[in-house]
Amino acid sequence: MLERIPFNRQNLFGPELRYIEDAYLRNKVSGDGFYTHWCQSFLEEKFGFDKVLLTTSGTHAIEMAMLLIDIGPGDEVIMPSYTFVSTANAVVLRGAKPVFVDIRPDTQNIDETLIEQAITTRTKAIMPVHYAGVSCEMDTIMDIAYRHKLWVVEDAAQGINARYKEKYLGGIGHLGCYSFHETKNISMGEGGALIINDSALKVRAEIIREKGTNRSKFYRGEVDKYSWVDIGSSFLPSDINAAVLKAQLEHLDEIQTKRNELYQRYYKAFSGIDAQSITLPVVPNSVVSNAHMFYLLLDSQEQRNDFIRYMKSKNILVVFHYVPLHSSNFAHQNLDQYQLPSTVENAQKLVRLPIFYRLTYDEQQRVIGAAHFFLTHN
User: Fold this and answer.
1) Is 350 among the domain residues?
2) How many domains, in total, are found in the chain?
3) Axis crossing angle, helix 341-349 with helix 301-313, rounded to the nearest 10
4) I need a surface site. Which of 39, 256, 305, 344 has the fewest CB within 10 A?
C-alpha cells in the first residue's frame, strides 16, 4: 500500500519550539507579550493595515467584529450561504439574522449583483467571504455599502496575502478577519486576527478583546488602574500561540511561492481534460490569489462522491467543502427559507485536492495521476 497522502500537513520550520521556550524565559506567556506585538506589527507593516489585533480564532475575530459594529436583535447581515458556520454564528449569537445571497458560479463568492435586492430597513452590514483566497468584487460591494450606509466586514479567513487590485484582503472593508487555523496558509494551530480599517473603532476593539476592560491602556501606562468599561470577552491568544505564528510569518514569502507552484502545476495538469467533465477554479484579472485552495467542479454530486471514494482507495484524501448554511437543520428551524441554485449546485460538485507547503512533487504527481485516471475513465 502506498503511503497515505493527507488533505493537509502541518508546517514546522524550526524556530517554533525555540520561540515558545523564549516566551517562557521572558516570563510572559499570556497574551500581549513580545510575540503578540511582533506578529501584529508584522501584519500591519507587511500589508499596510492601520491596526491588527491577534485573536484566539478566526471565529472570534468575526464575533469581535459583530460586537464592534453593535449588531443586535432585529439587525440583518448579508452573507453567502456557502461559507463556514462561524460567519453566520457570529450574527446569530448577537440575536440578529443572517440573510443569505447566492454565489457566483465562477468564483464561489457572493454574487455582488444580488446584494442590493437583499437589503431591507433592518440591514446593518454586508459580510463578503473571500472563498479560496480569491477576492469578492469589493469595489461594487463597497459602493453598495456606502450608498446604503452599511458596515462591511470581510471574512478573509482564507485570504491572507491575497489581493484585490492594489489592496490586501481584510484591508478593504471597515473590518477584516483572518484565520490562522491549522488548515490555513499560515498557522498558529488555532488563532486569527481582526483588522481594523476604521480608526474610530480601534480603542473599543482593544477593550472588547480584553473582556470589556481598559487593561491595554493600563499596560501602556495611560491609566493607573483598569476596570470594566464595556462588553467583551477573552479574545486574546496566548503568547505561546503567537510565538508559533512568528515562525510562520517569517516564512510567508517562501510558503506563498511553494503554494503558487503547487497551484499552477495542478491547473496545468487538469487544463487538458475535457471541459465538459470538470470546471477549474477562476481567478478574475483584478485579483491576486494566495493559492489557498485548489478545487475541481465535477459533473454531478454522484461523480464527485465516486471521485472521493476512488481517491481514498488510492490512499489519497480529497474532500468536499461546505454544506450550504441555508440547507442546514438549524436554518430550516430558525431562519427564512432560500432558493440559492448556484450555491446548491456547486456545493454538490466541488471537491478539494491536497495543497499544502509540505506536499512533495512526487506526492502531487500521485494525486494528479490518480485524478486523471478517474476523470478520463468515468
Assistant:
1) yes
2) 2
3) 20
4) 305
